[in-house]
């Protein structure tokens, strides 16, 4: 049962920031994750601040310079269907189209998808785990078939977003505003690993909100996509996924960005693989080397070692598709 809370719908960003100054206030976008967290007792709220009346947070715009500008309140369904996103930012369209179910895509927002909390059953359950300020990650010795193989440390959650790795592969930047003013960060800098802070997923400070995302125009010869492997065909989170954006020039890789989902506490960028690919032809030898490099440093838990060959297969599949472009 939900505890009693106040509910307000400010009409501007400034009004929202004022409302969020109250201790215990929580941002409400689409609400598909917030209400679940409140119901499950993951955290409490004395006030819920809805952003639904703030028009400037909506919209998806392809600017004249080719930059894609997305408001935090743009729905996932709108992203998946937008012509410019489908044509030029295919990885994002792919990712948006496989988020949850059609009903949730119509309700959920980009800002909410980027900021959603972990789906770990220990975190969502009645356990005083590390992420809730306790001393134990119960996944390490418990049910961990869907948990991390990279970046775990004190906590082995996986980040649940599909749009975040796609946007990271597309070199997106996130716009934030809070009591200390506005700032713009590369999306990669927005997320935290447990070694940074095991109780937080992002760098958002108290009272700070996401305004939107900016995606630069893709370089000439760039192709992108997102592949998600899941247990069920719909309404499921990734066991592993891969977003990629690769620019080819005269048969060789001019630029590459590859980001995994479902395998780490934050979207996991494959820097070593990217470096290996630059100026190479995507022949069988290069693809095999890249797939092997993708799993260097993996530390599977007792029940999730299947993710290692799964990641290798995703990388092989992606590079094969890029070579045929």
Question: Can you give me a brief rundown of this structure?
Answer:
The chain is about 30% helix and about 20% strand.
Describe the protein's architecture and organization.
The chain contains 13 helices and 12 strands. It is an alpha+beta fold and 325 residues long. It has 3 domains: 54 residues, Uridine Diphospho-n-acetylenolpyruvylglucosamine Reductase, domain 2, CATH 3.30.43; 119 residues, Uridine Diphospho-n-acetylenolpyruvylglucosamine Reductase, domain 3; 102 residues, 2-Layer Sandwich (Enolase-like, domain 1), CATH 3.30.390. The chain has a 5-stranded antiparallel β-sheet with strand order 4-5-8-6-7. It is globular, with a radius of gyration of 19 Å. The model has no long low-confidence stretch (mean pLDDT 96).
What's the layout of helices and strands?
Elements: E1 6-8, H1 13-19, E2 25-28, H2 34-40, E3 47-50, E4 60-62, E5 68-71, H3 76-81, H4 83-88, H5 90-97, H6 102-107, H7 110-115, H8 121-124, H9 163-169, E6 173-178, E7 181-186, H10 187-190, E8 209-215, E9 222-229, E10 240-249, E11 252-261, E12 268-269, H11 271-277, H12 284-294, H13 307-323
Parallel strand pairs: 1-3, 2-3
Antiparallel strand pairs: 4-5, 5-8, 6-7, 6-8, 9-10, 10-11, 11-12
Helix pairs in contact: 5-9, 11-12, 12-13
